[in-house]
Amino acid sequence: IGIDFEHIQLDETIQQAELDARLDQVNNDPSVHGIIVQLPVPDHLNTKHIVHSILPEKDVDGFHAENIGHLSKRATEPHFYSCTPLGCIEILKRYNIPIAGKNAVVVGRSDIVGSPVAMMLTNLDATVTLCHSRTADIEDKVRNADIVVVAIGKPEFVKADWIKPGAVVVDVGMNAKDDPTKKAGYRWVGDVEASAMERASFMTPVPGGVGPMTVAMLLRNVVTSAKRFFEESARIKIVPNKLHLLDPVPSDIEIASAQTPKLIAQVASELNLSHAEFEPYGKHTAKVTLDVIDRLSANSNGRYIVVTGISPTPLGEGKSTVTIGLSQALYAHRAKPTFACVRQPSQGPTFGIKGGAAGGGYSQVTPMTSMNLHLTGDIHAITAANNLVAAAVDARFFHESTQTDAQLFNRLCPKKKGVRRFADIMHRRLQKLGIDKATPEELTPEEVSRFVRLGIDQDNITWRRVMDTNDRFLREITIGQAATERGMDRQTGFDITVASEIMAVLALATSLADMRERLGRMVVAMSKQGEPITCDDIGITGALAVLMKDAINPTLMQTLEGSPVFVHAGPFANIAHGNSSIVADRIALKLVGVPAGEPITPENSGYVVTEAGFGADIGFEKFVNIKCRASGLVPDAAVIVATVRALKMHGGGPAVVPGKPLADEYTQENLDLLEKGFANLRRHIENVSK
Q1: Dihedral angle computed from the Cα positions of residues 330, 331, 334 and 337, in that order, rounded to the nearest 10 degrees
Q2: How far is CA 165 from CA 121, 140, 141, 364, in A?
């Protein structure tokens, strides 16, 4: 009927752990709408565990305890009804058999048929008696029944004369009975004598009655599951977290501490993310995989809004606060699917005068302490990757300075079981050198020398080490002073981690593969011949990609009002491009976008509010000229943040110095300074309009 399916056949010796892993795989595959495990399973496997390992929302057999349990409650419904009981009820409905007010007897109490069909008949207002093999006077109970459902698994258990004239009989049984007149030596009989048809007004045949209905209901459950999935995933659910406003407004940390955020699993559920598409880091943060972009590739993008600002004072003018506040307003007060995308704060400014970057007042990302500190470790991953590059560059210079070509060759291409091989990354180096050789043994001595020697100019090593702390005494340092370094000391220093080129690469990467390519192209030094030396030349690109494999996934958080936020990447705008990541914006735009095939209207399209760092003359222009060119995305609107304080400063007010009290000009009315400062805002409006 058009249902795509995969028939997974497993060896009967499979162990429970391996089977669990296979079930996890299909449970977490959003393209799978139904899962059936064919029973019975081999004796060494736990049937109950297997049945309950299937997600209730994919349990199209209807065997999961959650689905069975909901049958006993009138106020709730299961994800799926068990197929055979559902088939029994469907037969009664299709033939317009009255159920409400009738006496129904169910013979058999199995979890698969008897018990569920008894509960379903009860929910349809029948008066139900559930019988089994040990029920006393079972014959009398059946004789009084208007509807009889038999699923006891015993051939012809219910006799024809038990059936009340005019009763309706649903025979679920399927039993092989010896019959020498048949070619197979047996014939199929039900749990009710076939001659009961002469007394019943309706009776299902065996075979050809309930069996085909079971199959039909199974297929219906799969279709129902698919429809439910597409309907639920078509729109993100808007569940605001109510704010409790106080006057006077408390401090940021007091506001953040007083609000109880939603569990991140709930936020992910509201976004219709599958279990495989997010990985929780504690209760309130999670990593979201890039697979979401592929799954929602047919969706249109939501509306793309960029928040920038006039040239700021050193104290910052509140772009993050406006970004978060605008997203909260659209989400919680206009009921629009809305995402905010912001940069991850550096611990340097967090522990300095500027402080954190989670927003302010009632417009914050929460939990603010998690956001402003380690979060999910992306900045630490960049620190490790950056410093690995630094160590590799210095080590390569040292070894080239102290070893012969043959020694270097043996280290780079050692013999393993008598055979030398190029690592994959080495082929890029060979291609750059114009050497078209497949194996190390083919290289001439001159080619070996060119291959093994990068010729790093120690005075032109441009790569510095980093740490995510403002430590002024590490800005300029001398390294290589140990006796083992043989006098190869040099001047270098530390930058802050977010100033690393790897941070800029992370923000601009569009996929893991793209990030790897960009990491490989990073220039770390110049050769003595004036040629740029890259991470690919060093042979370290793969190691960097492994260190960064989790950092490529954006971190999901929420605002104080419960709207979703992606916190990802944090390059500075004065030395890099000052914007959060492309992948975060792309995932967010797909999540709030319109499903394929639906018209895009102002009513059904969601919003992504992303922040461009620093003033519009730096962050916004780099957003347009660098980030948008790399991503292919175009903003639909821009917001320019301006403050009276910054306008006064640009109008000629005294310098604003972090850590010093503001001058009187900023705390008292001064319309002259304010008016003159509008020249700055006017220019930013002109630039953004262009």
Answers
A1: 100
A2: 21, 14, 14, 73
CA–CA distance from 134 to each of 129, 141, 145, 152, 324 (Å)?
14, 13, 18, 11, 66
CA atoms within 13 A on the CB side of 53: 19
Query: pTM to 2 decimals?
Result: 0.84
What proportion of the chain, given as a percentage, has pLDDT over 70? 100
β partners of residue 558? 366, 564
The predicted-structure confidence for 14-24, as pLDDT tens digits, reads as follows 999 999 999 99
Please report, in angstroms and rounded to a whole number, the separation of the first and last CA atoms in the chain. 55
Counts of helices then strands in the chain (DSSP H, E): 27, 24
Report which DSSP code applies to 343: P
| DSSP code per residue over 430-447 | HHHHT---SSGGG--HHH
Residue 476 carries which DSSP code?
S
Which is nearest to 68 in space by CA: 19, 31, 113? Answer: 113
| Single-letter code of the amino acid located at 421 | R
Q: Specify the amino acid at residue 198.
A: E
3-state secondary structure 79-148: CCCCHHHHHHHHHHHHCCCCCCCCEEEEECCCCCCHHHHHHHHHHCCCEEEEECCCCCCHHHHHHCCCEE
| CA dist., res. 342 & res. 97, Å (int) | 61
47: tokens are 């049937």
Contacts (Cβ under 8 Å, ≥6 apart) of 422: 413, 430, 438, 439, 440
Measured between alpha carbons, how far is 266 from 549 in angstroms, rounded to an integer? 25
In this predicted structure, the answer to whether residue 313 has a pLDDT above a threshold of 90 is: no
Q: How far apart are CA 119 and CA 323, in angstroms?
A: 52
Decide if 452 contacts 408 (C-beta within 8 A): yes
Crossing angle for the helix pair 83-94 and 114-123, to the nearest 10 degrees: 40
Element (H, E) at 649: helix 644-650
CB 587 within 8 A of CB 293: yes
Residues 6+ apart with CB under 8 A from 538: 389, 392, 393, 396, 454, 524
Burial class (CB in 10 A: 0-12, 13-18, 19+), 26: middle
Backbone φ and ψ of 130, nearest 5°? -100, 115
| Separation of alpha carbons 611 and 631, rounded Å | 15
205-223 per-position pLDDT tens digit: 999 999 999 999 999 999 9
What single-letter DSSP state applies at residue 195? G
CB atoms within 10 A of CB 45: 16
Nearest to 374 by CA among 469, 264, 263: 469
